[in-house]
Specification:
Strand order of the largest sheet: 2-1-4-3
Number of strands: 6
Number of helices: 1
Radius of gyration: 22 Å
Strand content: 25-35%
Distance between the termini: 18 Å
Structural class: alpha+beta
Number of domains: 2
Helix content: 10-25%
Largest sheet: 4 strands, antiparallel
Order of helices and strands: EEEEEEH
Length: 90
């Protein structure tokens, strides 16, 4: 579950901050400051994990022979699209 940082909008609250772990579908629910009761704004953050480790899949080789090894996310996605396979990880 993602962590969303929030900061109080009240200038007298001296930038009170907190981080909330929420489901993505609940990310826009209003958060109130525990100190003053004013709304808190969700801060915009970015995260990118650019690592890809080659993956070998034993059970989806629809062409028949042996294990499949994919060296990139794109090659795995292309194979799955070609053969009508779906995955939440793609």
């Amino acid at each position: 579950m993602p962590i969303y940082p929030h900061q109080c909008l009240n200038p007298n609250c001296k930038g009170n901050r907190k981080e909330l772990r929420r489901a993505i579908k609940n990310r826009d629910i209003e958060v109130l400051c525990e100190k003053c009761g004013m709304p808190m704004a969700r801060e915009i953050t970015t995260f990118y994990n650019g690592t890809w480790k080659p993956i070998t899949l034993e059970h989806i080789n629809v062409e028949g022979e042996g294990d499949l090894t994919f060296t990139s996310r794109k090659s795995l996605r292309d194979y799955c699209n070609k053969h009508g396979l779906e995955s939440g990880a793609l």
